[in-house]
Design brief:
- The protein is mainly alpha-helical and 192 residues long.
- The termini are far apart.
- It is built from eight helices and no strands.
Length: 192
């Protein structure tokens, strides 16, 4: 979750970037732009949110950094970005797509029966959602790669919220949907 940087920490960051406040402001804006581009190039889901996270992490250590860090401060920001990209990749690998709900291992024709059962339960559970929630989750998972990132940013703007808030809303819907699907699969499996 992104926290707002305190004015003192923000001023410390600017002073660390450059003693000239105007130049520091320009460097800050350029740095934010560069970090967001780096996250986009690395196919991270929320480049702006990750950029905020970089600044949050620097803000927590800024007092000590100003006294001990030698060299171009921007390199420190890029180092944190590199670590966030690695963390983001780990998260992506552990996330399961909507279509990839874990089902018990079965063999042969039972496999297709099982996936058909899950598909039927998915459709039933989607119908139980309000039309707003159903539309939101289907749209959220509609695109792939860069188009997905752009589309989710557009969705958040249309809803008047941040991408992070949108992600949390979708996550909550998805959890309830997965629980519904699991209940449905269990009920239908017992009914066989």
């Amino acid at each position: 979750m992104v926290h707002e940087i305190s004015p003192d920490s923000f001023n410390e960051i600017l002073a660390w970037l450059n003693p000239d406040r105007d130049l520091a402001g320009e460097m800050y804006v350029q740095l934010r732009h560069d970090l967001a581009r780096i996250f986009s190039w690395n196919r991270c889901n929320d480049p702006e949110g990750l950029t905020d996270e970089v600044f949050d992490r620097v803000a927590k250590k800024i007092q000590n950094l100003r006294q001990t860090y030698e060299g171009d401060p921007r390199l420190y920001f890029y180092g944190i970005a590199r670590n966030l990209i690695k963390e983001n990749l780990k998260k992506v690998k552990t996330q399961v797509s909507l279509a990839g709900i874990d089902t018990p291992d079965t063999s042969g024709s039972e496999d297709s029966e099982e996936s058909e059962l899950v598909e039927n339960c998915l459709q039933q559970c989607l119908q139980k959602l309000s039309s707003e929630k159903r539309e939101l989750i289907l749209n959220y998972y509609a695109k792939e790669k860069q188009a997905k990132i752009d589309y989710r940013t557009e969705m958040a703007k249309e809803l008047g919220t941040s991408v992070e808030t949108l992600r949390v809303r979708v996550h909550r819907i998805r959890i309830s949907l997965e629980e519904c699907i699991q209940r449905c699969v269990n009920e239908k499996s017992r009914g066989k």
